[in-house]
Amino acid sequence: MDEIRTLLTRTAELAADHLAAPVDTPVSRPVDPAALVAVLGGPLPDGPSDPLAVVESLARDAAPGLVRTNAGRYFGFVEGGVLPAALAADWLASTYDQNPGFAVLSPTAAALETVCQGWLLELLGLPSHASVGFTTGAQAANVTGLAAGRGEVLRRVGWDVDADGLFGAPPVTVVVGEERHATIGRALRLLGMGERRVVVQPADDQGRMTVAGLRERIGDGPAIVCAQAGNVNTGACDPMRAVTEVAHDAGAWVHVDGAFGLWAAASPDHRDLVDGIGLADSWATDGHKWLNVPYDSGFVICASPEAHRRAMTLSASYLARQDGGRDGTDWTPESSRRARAFAVWAALRSLGRTGVGDLVARCCTLTARFVDLLAEEPAVTVLNDVVLNQALVRVGDDDARTLAVAAEVQRAGVVWLGTTVRRGVTSLRISVSDHATTEGDVEVAAAEVRRAIAVTA
Ligand SMILES: *Cc1c(COP(=O)(O)O)cnc(C)c1O
């Protein structure tokens, strides 16, 4: 026992040292992937080693290839940081090694999912009767929500897709926005609905799905409309109320990919962006983005628990069910999995309603501040309306200059941000999603981008 205590105490120290690194520690360093493999690799060990030595060597050898996504100066993709309470609770989840697939395996993991379900629905303004599954992320949540929708729209025309599959089934029209996220395409592939056979509803200049012609595109048969809250480039949200009204009028199922944008509902100042979102049928969102829990963590939410359960449930004679218990496997594509609700519960408990709202609002304010600082540069053009935590910034008039600025910022490693190509135009892509990011970090980041603009001129 003493050995385990020494091991875990030392590990906590290593973790705290990582988090307490000086603020100017590089966010990332150029590293040769093969060198990392070489130092971490070598032949399969012949036999056992001391666990403490294993952990010490991991901490030492992993360091050069770690990207500090949770230290406040990472502005790439949409990467949340880690709230202290969520981190600590996640350690306990691993320590307890609970499997939330079935209530009998862990009454506590089941109870935490039940509690988080209620809290999340309230926080995000979604129907209180909806079901929630704890997934790896929005990708798996998109698969699950679309599976529920696929099953339900076919059931309404007398086809049981879960039993009989899609061969010979009535066709399902899948309408997607022009600027849907790539994970919607993969979800449709996995569900046998095809990435290419979708019907595309055009988007406006901010990437929001338009409504004109939507009714005709949906048609009169079984149909699913995939809407989006939080365009991964611009942060824009589809006009949820209008889209849902048209879609429901046509009898279609509305699935919302709201990986980060759904969290706008938690901030009183941003809630209008997702007005009407509670009217949809299923939603996908992430915990590891804006809620700042560790990877991996996402949620699928479904207004019809029956459709949700039909699509996901599984049974076997040896899998015991408990009356009144929550069996997590009914709501996700997985059977056994990590007890993600430990970290989610701790995040929600430590922030509370106003804390989550403030986190969302602060990230949006800091994004606007970042853009204002960059806009002082004559070479800079801001390409989107900065409504949430995403901004697109172009330097000069050719793609090469913008790419050179990004490369210089990444090379220096003081902060990290990436690039994107939207409608054929390359830009720097800025996302503020980490609770640890301060106004000072944004000032450092803006100064760093301006330095890169100067040296690439
Ligand atoms: C990030 C994102 C996803 C995918 O989420 P994962 O957490 O990577 O599974 C889906 N849709 C949107 C809009 C996103 O921003």
From TrEMBL:
One of its GO terms (biological process) is carboxylic acid metabolic process. InterPro entries: Aromatic_deC (IPR010977), PyrdxlP-dep_de-COase (IPR002129), PyrdxlP-dep_Trfase (IPR015424), PyrdxlP-dep_Trfase_major (IPR015421), PyrdxlP-dep_Trfase_small (IPR015422). Keywords: Aminotransferase, Decarboxylase, Lyase, Pyridoxal phosphate, Transferase. One of its GO terms (molecular function) is aromatic-L-amino-acid decarboxylase activity. The keyword Transferase applies. It comes from the Bacteria. Its cofactor is pyridoxal 5'-phosphate. The modification N6-(pyridoxal phosphate)lysine is found at K289. The keyword Transferase applies. Belongs to the group II decarboxylase family. This is Aspartate aminotransferase family protein. It comes from Egicoccus halophilus.
